[in-house]
Amino acid sequence: MVKISIPTLPKAPLLPRSGLSILPIPEAASYLARFLENGKGQTVMLTGAGVSVDSGIRAYRGEKGTYSNPNYKPILYHELVEDSDRGDMFRRRYWARSFLGYPPVRDAQPNPTHIYIAALQHLGLAPKLITQNVDNLHRKAYSLISPNYDKSSILELHGTLAKVHCLKHRHEQTRDVYQEDIARMNPVWDEESKEAERTGQRPRTNPDGDVELHGVDYRSFSVPPCRICEREKLKSSMVKPNVVFFGETITAEVRDASLDLIANSSSLLILGTSLATYSAYRLVKLAVEHKKPILMITTGPTRADPFMGNGLDKMDRVAGDVLGKYLDEAVKTSTGQEVEDVKRYLHTGVVKRPPAVEGPRAEG
């Protein structure tokens, strides 16, 4: 049997902070300006959980790269889809916990870093974005600046919590619709969810929308069938969120699209991620192999640190500070409708830190 575990960073000696990491913010912003100018509008961005911490969504890893919640045991893909009584209990547990954990993710608002990243896209400085996040916040941010933005400009490497689908027929629904089905079939759980929202006493929510519950009997929880299957009088199959679970591989389509974006880019800008998952790390490996300039702005150790000095430069610092300062200067000397769009929203965004977060305000 193959053992599946949550990705962690390989053991490696902590490297001293590079000169880029101790530059004053204005100089760091100038360095970013030169990097983007050399990219000639073909820089691709890659983001991770660190950019969403200021929106109240915890990162998996803290400042030192350690797993922030080592006792957390998520459902693995093979457990979720197991066709047995045991699999049925795994699904009850997953959907019960996710029912409580999804509202905080759904209600989260883009923070300033999301706005800065959308601004880089809208200004054509780094028009393509690959994100490991499933929280939909990059799309919310870009839609603020440009309601009719090109949806294909954001590739969600690990999917999105905003949609679900059934495994047999691939019927897709919005997550909000499925939440309604869960609430209708589980009135006691629905009342618990509403009470948590009223009091603000929500259980700890992880980046995948799962929450921690202890001593709970999930046998009474009912998992709704696919309503489209029922409407079309088909045998209903298991419903799954449109996210990649631990132990699940990303689709060939998404994998190929991400590799093509890197291959066709001029450079790679990495923001707020430790790159612990291989699906993201291999994109950096590809960029290194193709000798593309790489700039990483994130806090703490990362899986790509060994590439430093081999085409990769790293600023060990909060990405939003550097992006915000750079954009302040960039919009001063530029004109056009895109610039006016960006100016309108540049320093907006909602900062709502999750309680008891380890480390600085934007972990990788």
Automatic annotation (TrEMBL):
Under which name does UniProt file this protein? Answer: Deacetylase sirtuin-type domain-containing protein
**Chain ranges passing through the membrane:** none
Membership in a protein family: Belongs to the sirtuin family. Class I subfamily.
Q: Where on the tree of life does the source sit, at the highest rank? A: Eukaryota
From which lineage does this chain's organism come?
Answer: Eukaryota, Fungi, Dikarya, Basidiomycota, Agaricomycotina
Under the cellular component aspect of Gene Ontology, which terms does the record hold?
mitochondrion
Q: Name one GO molecular function term.
A: histone deacetylase activity, NAD-dependent
* InterPro entries, sorted: DHS-like_NAD/FAD-binding_dom, NAD-dep_sirtuin_deacylases, Sirtuin, Sirtuin_cat_small_dom_sf, Ssirtuin_cat_dom
Region feature Disordered, mapped onto this chain: 188-211
- Which PANTHER family does this one have? NAD-DEPENDENT PROTEIN DEACYLASE SIRTUIN-5, MITOCHONDRIAL-RELATED
| Organism name | Kwoniella dejecticola CBS 10117
Q: Which Pfam families is this protein grouped with?
A: SIR2 (PF02146)
Compartments, record wording = Mitochondrion
Residue span(s) of domain Deacetylase sirtuin-type: 22-349
Biased-composition ranges, Basic and acidic residues, are: 195-211
Keywords annotated in UniProt:
Mitochondrion, NAD, Transferase, Transit peptide
